[in-house]
């Protein structure tokens, strides 16, 4: 096991141990707390073992009655069954769930607590239930009435400081629930009222209390005179704890719920300490006063707020009425409506909080009822006004508005109120569900055309030219969107709620039926009716099948509900949680329902048994009372069946007592009176006839004793004879003797039976008969003691002899069998291997026989009890074995030695030849051929003539002693083995050559396999993202590996010349040559495919086409320029484009040079010719561009000259116009005609 596993195990065991210690502390504390309250019962009750005493529910109900002051129904009695226990626990749990928490105001939640777990006494569940009771009835009740605590002063300061009387009293407020719950409230009380002024820090209800100082601080806060803080600070923790608990109990009357040993630990139990500390709240001086003051002040503030809210709602109602009656247009009306509705919605949360009932019965006060009524009136008035405004819209908007109101009304319908019965709720929800389907789905389908029209209207903001208020139109769009999105959610919710109430109604009905079946029962007829009712309700109406159908329907609706609204899956009221609660409730309920039938049948059985026994006993009592006056013989004959009547009397009382415990009071009273009367008559009669009850029994005892005594005497006589009879020393006789002795030991049982019958007989028989019986028993006991003293050593020593005898007899039989087989095999030739085996078996068996014989001799010579063992048979068998051994040894002699030597040498030679033959016959090895070649070389190099020489020498020696008839067969064996040896020697060279050929073939195959893998990889790369050019460049297949393969093939050819033409080595050579040729062809084909692959020309073709298209476009521009000869000089962009195209041409030339290495020559030549033509066209274009540049320069100069002349003409024209006289103007005009002979300039001048 690893260190991490060890640490995990240690951690788990530590947690388990800590949890058990915590449960033990809580059990002790909770038990003391319960006993402190049960002491108020009449009579007082005490809990000794919490987990056991709480099972029947009686203690739990008594505790709740003391804490609540209410009376609860309880099933009581000495013979309560589990069904009654569950009923009591169920009553207690239902009572708790009906109470409201002082902090939350909601019912108490019992999480994972059900009746069956409490009845089973599960520690964690029982402790959880008791803690819930303590938290609600003690801690929450006491902390909810605490005054609010500020950071600067405490309630204790205000109570102690009485000097400052001029300042007004400060109002105290109760601790609000939102400040952390009961635990934090209790901790704040301890911190503010006790420990803060003493310098003691209390941060929790755990380690902060270990020293005991916190307990003293709480006591000091309540009674300062009881505590000397200076003295207690220097003492051990447990002394402080012990004194603090004692002071609280004796001076304050607070029961000691804790032990010092439970608090003085590293992690004290918080729940136990909270339970104890909360008791000090009862002695808080300001608790009751602050509670009443705070309640009065809060009530006054609450009523004032409600009145103000009522006034505001009335004013809002008047504003709604006034705005609705005002004569304005639709837009103003809608704006007024929306403003007032926003005011109402802003105050909605405040109104809902104000309408929360603060009373335990959930009723509203008068002010709350008025506010609720006014709120409903204003809401309805706004809703009617909204409907009127929507209807006032031009068609088809009015139809859409009316449908929206119906749909929104259906969506506003919520779950019916809780006080309603689940059956009625189910019907209400079903009707609401149908109304929802009618109000939302069909109208939506019928108004699709209206909705399409609405979409167009929403875009146009008008209906046939009539404007629509944009704000109202936008609200309609949002409402339509809300209805369409919320309809499925609401439908799924209503379906889930319907199934929810159906299964709740089903469970309530089942629980009510269960409660009607586990009551105190009546007479037999009523129980039969109850059983018939059970069968009808459970079996005929298929209770369990109906639940399964309802639950599956609920589960489906829950899944649909969660699918459309995931937020409802978990939480306080989550769907999953409700399903778990239903499953848990049904699990406990179904168990109890199934147990009802057995209980009812048991009650009926007891009624039947009680009725039959009462009837027969009454009749017999009348006859017995009359028989008392009869003669003795008659009475003895009559009362012979008294024992049977005693059994019936006991059965009657058992059945009657059971019925008294399980039936109601009226029936129980009648049964008690009847039993009292019958038992009285029985008791009076039995006093006179009780001696007759044993007469029949005494006679039976006498017969049984005589029979048992006779059997015991026979056993004793037989045992004496068997112990003294002689026993032959062999396995079967000794085993039979041991079995007889063990049977003698079993006589102890028979003696006990006789002794018991003798005691019964001597007790009630006459004295002289009793004395004779006891004397006979004493004699039998003495005889049995003598026999019993001899048996144990006999059994022990016989058990020691049996293994030796069994082994000796087994080896004796094996010795004779082996000796017989050896005698049959010895004269034959060839010498069988079994002969040597049989001889060895004889030796082993003989050794075991001799060893066991000596062991038996020693055991018998030292034994003190085996005097009757006869050794004659054993000695006789041993002598026979020794005679057989002597004869066998004489026959074996010197010839046996030569035979063994020859046989051993023959076996060794055959082994060597067999190994060589296996090597020669071994097919192509699946492993490494080089390893096989090395191994075979080693083997055949060690194969020499010594094995054959030893065999031939042994053969010559054996031939001298064999008869003439057997020598021929021996020579035949020698010739056969010698020929086999020569054949092997001749085959070895060819075999080694074949192995060498296989080695070379393996090398060629590996290289060719690598080549094929490389080719496959290149083809896969080509089919992927890699280009063929890259694959060609990365081509790894070179002539080097192929040259090596050719070299190895030449080696194979040289080796094959050493073997015949039909040898398999030639086939291996041909196969390797064929594989090499195939791979060479594959390499060449792959290279051609790579060279011919078109992807490497893709980029070259793209850029080539791009340059060609550019040349075409430039040629068109040059022609256009020549035709128009317009103004425009080459720009810098054009010059850069030309430079870029020259770079492209250079790239194409370089790329073509690179591609020529990895492409076919014909394709390279074709592309090179195309590139040359493209280069020629580019140079021609550049030349044309240069000529165009010169033309542009000439045109540009001419245009500049024209512009200059035109400006001078305009200036001269201005001087002509500005001439003072006509002559001067004419003279200037003539000068103008001479300087500007251009016709178009003169026309301009004339104009």
Automatic annotation (TrEMBL):
GO terms for cellular component: cytoskeleton; meiotic nuclear membrane microtubule tethering complex; nuclear outer membrane; sarcomere. It holds the Pfam family CH. GO terms for molecular function: actin filament binding. InterPro entries: Actinin_actin-bd_CS, CH_dom, CH_dom_sf, CH_SYNE1_rpt1, CH_SYNE1_rpt2, LINC-complex_assoc, Spectrin_SYNE1. It is found in: Cytoplasm, Cytoskeleton; Cytoplasm, Myofibril, Sarcomere; Nucleus membrane. One of its GO terms (biological process) is nuclear migration. Residues 150-176, 284-304 are annotated as: Disordered. Keywords: Actin-binding, Coiled coil, Cytoplasm, Cytoskeleton, Membrane, Nucleus, Repeat, Transmembrane, Transmembrane helix. This is Calponin-homology (CH) domain-containing protein. It comes from Gadus morhua. The lineage of its organism: Eukaryota, Metazoa, Chordata, Craniata, Vertebrata.
């Amino acid at each position: 096991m690893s260190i991490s596993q060890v640490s995990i195990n240690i951690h788990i065991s530590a947690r388990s141990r800590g949890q058990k210690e915590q449960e033990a502390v809580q059990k002790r504390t909770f038990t003391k707390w319960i006993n402190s309250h049960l002491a108020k019962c009449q009579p007082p009750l005490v809990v000794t073992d919490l987990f056991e005493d709480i099972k029947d529910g009686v203690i739990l109900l008594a505790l709740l009655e003391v804490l609540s002051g209410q009376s609860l129904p309880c099933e009581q009695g000495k013979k309560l069954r589990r069904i009654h226990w569950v009923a009591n626990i169920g009553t207690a749990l239902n009572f708790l769930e009906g109470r409201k928490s002082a902090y939350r105001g909601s019912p108490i939640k019992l999480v994972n607590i059900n009746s069956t777990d409490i009845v089973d006494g599960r520690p964690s569940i029982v402790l959880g239930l008791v803690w819930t009771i303590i938290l609600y009835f003690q801690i929450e009740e006491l902390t909810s009435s605490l005054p609010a605590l500020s950071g600067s002063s405490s309630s204790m300061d205000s109570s102690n400081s009485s000097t400052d009387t001029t300042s007004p009293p400060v109002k105290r407020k109760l601790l609000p629930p939102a400040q952390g719950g009961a635990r934090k409230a209790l901790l704040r009380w301890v911190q503010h009222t006790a420990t803060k002024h003493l310098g003691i820090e209390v941060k929790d209800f755990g380690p902060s209390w270990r020293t005991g100082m916190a307990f003293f601080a709480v006591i000091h806060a309540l009674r300062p005179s009881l505590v000397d803080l200076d003295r207690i600070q220097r003492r051990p923790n447990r002394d402080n704890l012990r004194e603090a608990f004692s002071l609280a109990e004796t001076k304050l009357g607070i029961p000691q719920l804790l032990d010092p040993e439970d608090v003085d630990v590293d992690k004290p139990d918080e729940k136990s300490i909270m339970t104890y500390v909360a008791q000090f709240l009862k002695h808080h001086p300001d608790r009751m006063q602050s509670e009443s003051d705070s309640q009065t002040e809060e009530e006054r503030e609450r009523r004032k707020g409600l009145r103000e809210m009522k006034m505001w709602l009335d004013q809002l109602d008047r504003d709604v009425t006034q705005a609705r009656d005002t004569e304005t247009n639709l837009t103003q009306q809608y704006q007024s409506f929306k403003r007032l509705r926003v005011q109402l919605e802003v105050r909605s949360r405040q109104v809902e909080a104000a309408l929360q009932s603060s009373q335990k019965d959930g009723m509203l006060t008068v002010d709350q009822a008025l506010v609720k009524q006014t709120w409903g009136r204003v809401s309805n008035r706004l809703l009617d006004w909204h409907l009127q405004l929507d209807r006032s819209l031009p068609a088809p908007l009015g139809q859409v508005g009316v449908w929206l109101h119906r749909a929104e009304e259906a969506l506003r319908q919520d779950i019916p109120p809780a006080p309603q019965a689940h059956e009625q709720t189910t019907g209400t929800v079903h009707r609401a569900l149908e109304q929802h389907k009618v109000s939302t789905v069909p109208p939506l389908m019928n108004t699709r055309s209206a909705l399409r029209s609405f979409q167009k209207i929403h875009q146009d903001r008008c209906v046939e030219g009539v404007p629509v208020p944009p704000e109202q139109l936008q609200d309609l769009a949002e409402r339509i969107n809300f209805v369409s999105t919320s309809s499925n959610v609401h439908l799924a919710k209503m379906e889930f709620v319907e199934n929810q109430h159906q299964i709740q109604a089903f469970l309530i009905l089942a629980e009510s039926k269960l409660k009607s079946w586990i009551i105190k029962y009546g007479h037999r007829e009523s129980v039969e009716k109850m059983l018939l009712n059970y069968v009808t309700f459970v079996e005929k109406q298929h209770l369990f099948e109906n639940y399964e159908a309802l639950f599956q329907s609920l589960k489906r609706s829950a899944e649909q509900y969660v699918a459309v609204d995931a937020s409802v899956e978990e939480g306080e009221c989550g769907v999953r949680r409700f399903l778990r609660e239903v499953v848990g409730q049904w699990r406990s309920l179904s168990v109890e329902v199934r147990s009802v039938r057995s209980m009812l049948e048991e009650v009926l059985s007891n009624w039947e048994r009680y009725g039959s026994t009462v009837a027969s006993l009454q009749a017999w009592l009348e006859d017995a009372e009359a028989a008392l006056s009869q003669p003795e013989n008659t009475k003895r004959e009559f009362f012979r069946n008294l024992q049977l009547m005693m059994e019936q009397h006991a059965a009657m009382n058992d059945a009657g007592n059971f019925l008294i415990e399980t039936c109601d009071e009226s029936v129980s009273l009648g049964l008690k009176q009847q039993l009292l009367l019958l038992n009285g008559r029985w008791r009076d009669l039995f006093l006179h006839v009780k001696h007759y009850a044993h007469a029949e029994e005494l006679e039976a005892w006498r017969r049984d004793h005589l029979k048992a005594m006779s059997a015991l005497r026979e056993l004793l006589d037989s045992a004496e004879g068997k112990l003294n009879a002689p026993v032959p020393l062999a396995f079967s006789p000794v085993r039979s003797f041991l079995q007889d002795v063990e049977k003698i030991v079993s006589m102890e049982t028979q003696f006990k039976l006789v002794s018991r019958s003798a005691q019964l007989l001597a007790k009630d028989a006459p004295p002289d008969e009793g004395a004779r019986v006891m004397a006979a028993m004493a004699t039998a006991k003495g005889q049995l003691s003598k026999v019993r003293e001899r048996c144990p050593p006999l059994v022990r020593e016989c058990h020691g002899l049996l293994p030796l005898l069994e082994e000796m007899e087994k080896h004796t039989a094996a010795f004779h069998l082996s000796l017989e087989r050896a005698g049959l095999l010895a004269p034959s030739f060839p010498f069988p291997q079994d002969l040597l085996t049989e001889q060895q078996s004889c030796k082993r068996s003989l050794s075991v026989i001799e060893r066991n014989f000596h062991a038996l001799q020693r055991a018998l010579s030292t034994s003190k009890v085996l005097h009757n063992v006869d050794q004659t048979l054993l000695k006789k068998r041993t002598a026979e074995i020794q005679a057989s051994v002597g004869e066998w040894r004489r026959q074996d002699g010197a010839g046996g030695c030569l035979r063994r030597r020859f046989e051993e040498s023959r076996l060794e030679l055959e082994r060597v030849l067999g190994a060589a033959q296996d090597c020669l016959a071994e097919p192509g090895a699946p492993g490494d051929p080089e390893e096989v070649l090395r191994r075979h070389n080693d083997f055949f190099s060690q194969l020499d003539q010594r094995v054959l020489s030893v065999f031939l020498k042994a053969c010559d020696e054996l031939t001298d002693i064999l008869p003439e008839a057997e020598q021929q067969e021996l020579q035949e064996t020698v010739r056969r083995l010698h020929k086999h040896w020569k054949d092997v020697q001749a085959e070895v060279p060819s075999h080694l050559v074949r192995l060498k050929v296989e080695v070379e073939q393996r090398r060629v195959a590996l290289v060719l396999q690598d080549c094929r893998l490389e080719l496959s990889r290149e083809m896969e790369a080509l089919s992927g993202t890699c280009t063929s050019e890259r694959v060609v460049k990365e081509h790894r297949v070179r002539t080097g590996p192929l040259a090596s393969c050719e070299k190895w093939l030449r080696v194979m050819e040289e080796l094959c010349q050493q073997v015949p033409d039909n040898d398999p080595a030639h086939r291996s050579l041909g196969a390797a040559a064929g594989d090499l040729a195939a791979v060479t062809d594959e390499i060449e084909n792959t290279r051609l495919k790579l060279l011919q692959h078109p992807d490497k020309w893709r980029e070259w073709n793209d850029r080539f086409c791009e340059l060609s298209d550019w040349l075409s476009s430039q040629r068109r521009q040059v022609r256009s320029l020549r035709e128009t000869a317009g103004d425009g000089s080459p720009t810098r962009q054009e010059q850069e484009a030309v430079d870029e195209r020259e770079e492209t041409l250079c790239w194409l030339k370089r790329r073509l040079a690179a591609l020529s290495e990895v492409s076919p020559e014909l394709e390279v030549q074709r592309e090179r010719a195309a590139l040359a033509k493209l280069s020629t066209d580019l140079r021609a274009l550049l030349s044309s561009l240069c000529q165009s540049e010169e033309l542009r320069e000439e045109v540009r100069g001419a245009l500049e000259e024209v512009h200059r002349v035109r400006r001078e003409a305009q200036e001269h024209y201005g001087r002509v116009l500005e001439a003072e006289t006509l002559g001067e103007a004419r003279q200037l005009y003539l000068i103008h005609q001479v300087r500007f002979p251009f016709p178009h300039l003169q026309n301009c001048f004339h104009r």
